């Protein structure tokens, strides 16, 4: 066959009809393992005759299947977001088309039956041509979709030769531009499946639920002679085509994923099935499951592993889902292709709503104003419908799948409409989604990505779009772009989902960073992103945009998500506690409530809170528990935790919490007065402080060498600062905020104080900031009253407003009373609570794959930095302040592009801030909301510095405190 099949828009040929993914008691033989492999630079350079028994592959390499050849040293990964990495000339692909030949010789087990069999490939990227024992089986495209070939008559007991030629590029690549690494190979399972005569060819389980009567209906669609049995429900041998009604059935939902074990069977084959009764409908402009409006608190999930790419071990898939459940994620959009079918089994078991998305995206055509887009070209019609058909048939029996999606960012056109029409006809029990159908002409829900809060509000009010759109449920298929430090603004989205019944949540982009594990020349580990493999065309770290890092370590954004979207809300209202249930279906009966009272972060009392079961959507008010009197600032924290073990968390796992202040207001530090400046030829002393008499800069404090504090307005820009068409970072750099210069205006020793007047401004520009430092002291403490006043016309927001001070590197332990334990910013602060926390300076860093501003702790009353002996420095603030402490400067953090670029220096760099600019999600979406923008305005900050003596022997140094 000539290589023209590579550039044929058709979906392939030779395969059998798509069917449901299932395993049965019929024999199966997994063909994964070590295969022989040869990579050729082009189709025409590949050897002839690889399918023959006598072909000599002795000079080839070994390659693990499933696997990607680029991750095994053959070629290199490449990442693009939108642009195709080859000329856009559909359906043609480059002549230099890396082609990987795979060969496996295998024997059948001794008891393998002499009957029909199929060879199943669950994923080949991007095009595969397959031979068995010298006979060509066919060609497959649709990388993340299954293909089966009938092979029974071709099998022999020993020495079966399976050959697969895989092309990196094909016509199918134009449909697979899905914002991910371009990785090739046989990357999902290859399985030989016996198909017994008279067995189960395929089946559809239709298990509906009537929420008004609590009755379930069960129907099996299959060939004549196929039956279904569900012993727990008293259903035995129900023939295909007949319907059974079941009283008082327990429905399936993401919150209560009740599954009934059963079998689909014939006389020669038995298929275990797990049946979930549920009904999905669009009614009254809302998406409902079992008669209840649901809200997607979801994430977009690519399949990715930092070492094996889209070959995701089962334990990683389980870890994904358990992390999701523990962080109040209730839904997954399978962006932008069907996942390994085993992942959907897990969603059924653990309970997640799923939007199952077709293996389709043509985003690169947007660079050409969508000219030539396959979505509206007739020659691609079969490929579009084929991709939907293979997904729907494979996944139709999963109760977790509540919606089908036609794909992502493929423009619009007749082929998408045809795929929607086929899907509606094939499965009328599920709605169809596609964000690109902006007028809902062929889909059932109104979907947007990265809509601003204002736009979502207008949609919820019904004043956005034409009538057909306004009648549809609305979801954000992508929002809250989680690239680097962020997103900010999740709380405001949640409020809109709760305010407007048609606004039914969304899916944060995205679940995980797609960093590839690498080591530098010194053996230090880091994660690589676009451009790190020498790609001439790439999109950098835009592939690093998840709520968890590549190794599944949660980022601070995941804790923020968990808090914002917690299913139970605990608040204080008029001196009482209010518990509001935001579950879609469950009551709070499965939760135990407890409280703890802390005085300045130290527990003084705790107890159990009796809360009667609260139905979904309802709330109840409770009196405060009896609390002992306290003499300092005190906070009551109430937690709702699992009362029993679940599949995803142990009893005691905290699902939700709330906090309210009780008792005295915060008391500011007493003024430090009484000491007078003492000037010598070389230094100026004030209380425990030593100053440079010329610059007025603090050089020592209680024997500790220090440098600063000086006004600091700069932070290492975040990915969100760098995002949008008018990025904050560009404005800040244009304003010279990364290279401010400090001029000493005056150093004025007074009778009881030292006043240092400065002006801070960028070179070449006329605006600036007046910063006056007024120092006062007593014998032990040094107090700074900082007043800042902007001068001139400022063109931008401020990254931060505070002071920077350098301290000895030995002060590596931190303790503070304020919000923690994690980092927080103005528009991303819901996950942190008031308490007393400890952590090492090293542990306070968040190692974002692309280094940027991180580690900010907010609302501090006081901070203590100490060495191993407990000696160091305490800082008290008025008002509450924020801090970051690092072993490198913001400038070094700004210059770094990988974590290995950050090398600890000889000091601790401490920032004490009045505020920082918010985060937003402008890396792809709206920027910082107005109320979280840090504007240049007059401001004051008071800080009191107290040197700390060593602690008595036996007192342990601070260690990191995990979140509770």
What features would you describe in this structure?
The protein is mainly beta. The protein has a 16-stranded antiparallel sheet that branches. Strand 40 (591-599) and strand 41 (602-609) form a beta hairpin. 51% of the residues are buried. The model is unreliable at 956-964 (pLDDT under 50).
Summarize the structure.
With 964 residues, this protein is mainly beta. The protein contains eleven helices and 60 strands.
Key terms:
disordered C terminus; 16-stranded antiparallel β-sheet; 964 residues; mainly beta
Secondary structure layout plus pairing:
Blueprint: E1 12-13, E2 28-30, E3 33-40, E4 61-65, E5 78-80, E6 99-106, E7 117-121, E8 124-125, E9 127-132, E10 135-141, E11 147-150, E12 160-167, E13 176-177, E14 180-182, E15 185-186, E16 190-194, E17 203-210, E18 215-222, E19 227-230, E20 235-239, E21 243-246, E22 260-265, E23 270-275, E24 280-283, E25 286-289, E26 292-293, E27 296-300, H1 314-326, E28 331-333, H2 341-350, E29 353-357, E30 361-362, H3 381-395, E31 401-405, H4 414-426, E32 432-433, E33 446-449, H5 453-461, H6 467-470, E34 474-479, H7 490-499, E35 503-508, E36 516-519, E37 525-528, H8 556-564, E38 568-573, E39 576-581, E40 591-599, E41 602-609, E42 619-623, E43 634-642, E44 654-662, E45 678-679, E46 684-686, E47 689-691, E48 698-701, E49 704-712, H9 719-722, H10 728-734, E50 741-749, E51 754-761, E52 768-777, E53 782-791, E54 800-808, E55 813-820, E56 833-840, E57 857-866, E58 872-886, H11 890-895, E59 907-916, E60 939-948
Parallel strand pairs: 13-30, 27-28, 27-35, 28-29, 29-31, 31-32, 33-34, 34-35
Antiparallel strand pairs: 1-10, 2-16, 3-4, 3-6, 5-14, 6-12, 7-11, 7-16, 8-15, 9-10, 9-12, 17-18, 18-21, 19-20, 19-22, 22-23, 24-25, 25-26, 36-37, 38-39, 39-42, 40-41, 40-43, 43-44, 45-46, 46-47, 47-48, 48-49, 49-54, 50-51, 51-52, 52-53, 53-60, 54-59, 55-56, 55-57, 57-58, 58-59, 58-60
Helix pairs in contact: 1-2, 3-4, 5-7
